[in-house]
Design brief:
Elements lengths: L1 E13 L5 E13 L3 E5 L6 H8 L7 E6 L2 E2 L3 H5 L1 E4 L11 H11 L4 H14 L15 H13 L5 E5 L7 H16 L3 E6 L2 H7 L2 E6 L2 E7 H7 L1 E10 L2 E8 L3 H10 L3 E9 L2 H10 L7
Parallel strand pairs: 3-8, 3-9, 6-7, 7-8
Antiparallel strand pairs: 1-2, 1-4, 4-5, 9-10, 11-12, 11-13
Helix pairs in contact: 3-4, 4-5
Bound molecules: adenosine-5'-triphosphate.
Keywords: ATP-binding, Nucleotide-binding, Transport
Pfam family, one: ABC_tran
InterPro entries: AAA+_ATPase, ABC_transporter-like_ATP-bd, ABC_Transporter_VariousFunc
Length: 292
């Protein structure tokens, strides 16, 4: 079963005078249940617009979205979703714990569940020490982590996270990546947007690259990294000396036989690859039809 099905979404915003800003053009993609899907694109690519439509906060110009097979406008589909908006902001006079209780009540949780789940997610997001202080005194990173906590408090099956690592320091980023990996281990689905390629490599099963409102490619991270292998680095020892040799991708077998014929011992072979960033820059530098 697909957790999210996005079909032929297009969206324009009103522009200057009578003009329009085209934000999305015919975007279709599916996110399978249990998968971590990264929605990668530069600034202004259309990531937040897509996410707001998936959350039912914006109406699409054309197209539709289903969440676990149900149209996104239905209350039932919303119960299963935890949402982190871009730049979250909260009622600043509440404490973090009070805000989570407010969210828990909105999702129909009982008081005991609210108490235990709030404590669990506050601990997970390293906010226990600040839980009973008003949000107005929180740092930017703490507000971002509270944003993730409020998306998790009702233990949804699907997480829609708009730039979850935004505004976090390296410790916070690592924490959020661990949380995403843990959600996957628990069978949850995560759809998150980012413009940081390294975040995708570490936590995602698949990635969709969006630019200029068009989905340019969707592929598994493993495929992208594998197809990005441009050659190999071979470490050998021969006559008591260690050497490192670079070999082109297609010449590996040939070069290995040659080396072994000379009595060299192969100590290590490592692929030399283009990383996700190189792949991303290559995709977005092309025209939508693939030409340069
Ligand atoms: N409310 C709005 N009114 C007019 N234009 C908008 C509005 N919101 C977004 N846009 C435009 O739509 C396009 C897509 O914006 P969107 O916020 O979806 O991109 P994004 O990929 O989330 O960008 P970022 O990474 O900078 O957050 C951009 O050209 C943006 O200027």
């Amino acid at each position: 079963m697909n957790a999210v099905e996005i079909s032929h979404l297009s969206k324009s915003y009103p522009g200057k005078r009578l003009g329009k800003v085209a934000a999305l053009h015919d975007v279709s993609l599916e996110v399978a249940a249990g998968e971590v899907f990264g929605f990668l694109g530069p600034n202004g690519a259309g990531k937040s617009t897509t996410i707001k439509i998936v959350m039912g906060l914006l109406r699409p110009g054309t197209g539709s979205v289903r969440v676990f097979g149900t149209p996104v406008q239905s209350v039932e589909s919303r119960r299963k979703v935890g949402y982190l908006p871009e730049n979250p902001s909260f009622y600043e006079f509440l404490t973090g714990r009070e805000y989570l209780a407010f969210v828990g009540r909105a999702f129909g949780m009982d008081d005991a569940a609210i108490r235990s789940e709030s404590s669990r997610v506050l601990e997970l997001l390293d906010l226990s020490g600040a839980a009973d202080r008003p949000i107005r005194g929180y740092s930017k990173g703490m507000v971002q982590r509270l944003g993730l906590a409020q998306a998790m408090v009702h233990d949804p099956d699907l997480y829609i996270l708009d730039e979850p690592m935004s505004g976090l320091d390296p410790v916070g980023r690592a924490l959020v990546k661990e949380i995403i990996k843990d959600l996957k281990r628990r069978g949850k689905t995560v759809f998150f947007s980012t413009h940081i390629t390294a975040d995708i490599e570490i936590v995602c099963d698949r990635v969709g690259i969006v630019a200029g409102g068009r989905l340019r490619t969707v592929d598994s991270v493993a495929n992208i990294l594998q197809s990005g292998v441009v050659g190999y680095e071979i470490e050998i020892s021969r006559a008591g000396a260690v050497e490192v040799i670079q070999v082109e991708r297609d010449l590996l077998q040939h070069r290995l036989s040659e080396l072994m014929d000379t009595g060299a011992v192969i100590e290590r072979i490592e692929p030399v690859r283009k990383d996700m960033e190189a792949f991303f820059l290559d995709i977005i530098s092309r025209e939508p039809d693939g030409s340069r």
